[in-house]
Amino acid sequence: MTILEARALRKQFALGEHTVAALAGVDFLVEKGEFVAIMGPSGSGKSTLLHLLGGLDQPSDGEVTIAGRRLSILNDDQATLVRRRSIGFVFQFFNLLPTLDAEENLALPLIIDGQDLRKHQARIDALLDLVGLTGWRHHRPDQLSGGQQQRVAIARALVTDPAIVLADEPTGNLDSNASLAIMELLRRSCDELGQTVVMVTHDPRAAAYADRVVFLRDGVVVARMALKEVAQMDERLRMVIGAIEEHRL
Length: 249
Hints:
CATH superfamily of the domain at 2-98 and 164-171 and 181-246: P-loop containing nucleotide triphosphate hydrolases
Low-confidence stretches: none
Distance between the termini: 31 Å
CATH topology of the domain at 2-98 and 164-171 and 181-246: Rossmann fold
């Protein structure tokens, strides 16, 4: 089942008197339960692509469809509901509210959506357990490590049971041990919860956890690599690094 589809995506920006093409016609397809990594050098268009896929920005041309809904035909209120209920976002810098504890930050999307938290308490408890923070549920962000804060952010992205989670450099602000824990958590969300994840990363080790890697350069897809059938993580990493070197990324 296709969860996300992008066709002929283009995005242009005005830079003084010139027009810069951040994306120059990208086709992108993600199936339910897939973990897809997007890689490319700075300026390749990977973050722009993620923002278009999440409805955070509008393409200059092309179409994005999420869970059967075409974003281009939605009004602002409808698009907001799709982002709130069908998409979970994970960012590099956590974006937790400092005055709320871990459980409250996790539940924030439900609060914003006007949901009765009592009806969702079992899921909140299960997600706290999944991310290993049951004992830290009443700790505020300044009482948590960077890795723990990112785990709260991932649980927050999962709490609405979204069609897809979009992660922008989720390990970019973490040390190697915390990065490993975050990638294992994202992998588990796919394997155990059937979650669909699309992640932008510059880190080959992070990309090696994905089922598939899409490589961008100068706003176009230059390579695609399937890793799902490769069991050994060392071999996955070798393949990702080899593709980066081959395509000079």
